[in-house]
Amino acid sequence: MKVSLKQLEILHAVAVAGSISRAMRRLEMSQPNISQQLAKMEEALGTQLLVRGRSLRTELTPAGSFWAEAAARILGKVEATEAQHQDLFVERGVTINLGTTPSFCGPFGEAVARLAADLPRLSRFDLTSAPTSQDLLELLMTHRIGIALLRDECLEAHRASLHVVPAHEDRIVWAVPAAVPEAVVGAVLGGAPTPPEFGCLARYAELRAVAPWFGRTQDWYSSVLPGAHPFFGCSTHESAVRIVAAGLATCHTPSSILPNLPAEVRGRVRFYDIGGAGRAMVLAMPRHLNSVRPFHDLADALAQMLRAEYAPGQFGLAPLPQAARRR
After folding, report:
1. Largest CB tally within 10 Å, which of 35, 72, 92, 232?
2. Range scoring the smallest mean pLDDT among 46-60, 81-95, 132-146
3. Confidence (pTM)
C-alpha cells in the first residue's frame, strides 16, 4: 500500500472544497490530473473513495471520509513540523500568510504590516484576500493560508481542528448619501413618498455573493423601506458604498469597512446604526500552528488591535430616525 502526500493533499482539498472542480483552483491542477491521482490512490488502497456521478458536489464513500480525515491530520502535522523547523533551525524564520475579505483593505493592511514587521523570527508576511469567509475557510483548511480573519459561524464543522481567537463584532450598517437631509430620510422611513430629487432612497446596492448579508438586506428593506428595490449588483462592499457616495442608492455594509474607506468617500456617506446584530469576527489558524511563536504572537496582537479599533462605538454611527425605529 503506497499512498503519497500529494494524493492525501488532493483528497483533502476535494473534501474541503466539496467538488473536484473547486479543488482544481486551489490545487492549480487540471481535472484529469486530479482524477488520475485519486484513481491511483483508490487502486493502492483497494477501495473506492469517491461516489462518481453527475452531481456537482463530490461525495465521499465511508472509506473516503476516513482517509480525508486522516489526510487533514497528517498534512496538519507536516505543516506544523515545517513551521517549527523554520522557527527553530532556519535563520530567516517563518512565513505567515493572513487571509481576509475585501472589507479589510487600505489602512487595515498597513496596520497589520506594522504588526508583522515588529515580530521576531518572521521572514515574510503575505496578505491574501478572498471574496467571502467561506472561501477563506477553504484556503485555511487546504493550507493555502496560515491565519484567517473570518466569520465565526463558518467554523462549526472544523472548530475541533482550529485555534480560534475572538476579534470583534462586525455590525450591519445602512449607508445613505450624505446629501440627503436626515429629515427626508426619516420621512421616507416613516412611509412618506420618496421625493423625486432623492430617488437614491428608492434604490439599493446588494451583494448577491455574500449570502448571509444578502438575506438580511432583503428582509430589512422589505420591512423598513419597502419602496426601495435592488437596482445595483456589486462584487464588494466598497464598490456598493462608492455607489452610495455618488448619490445613486443606499446599501448595507459591514462596519469594519468604515475605517478602511478613503476619507473622501466616507465624507460623502452617512452611516446609520440599524440596531441589528452583525457577525462575530474571529482569527482562526490550524490548532498546531498556535505552538509556533510568530503565529501565536501575530494572532494575539491583531486581535487586540481589532478589539480596540473596530468596536462599534468607534465609528460615529447615526441612529435611525424615531419613525424607523417604531416600524
Report:
1. 72
2. 81-95
3. 0.76
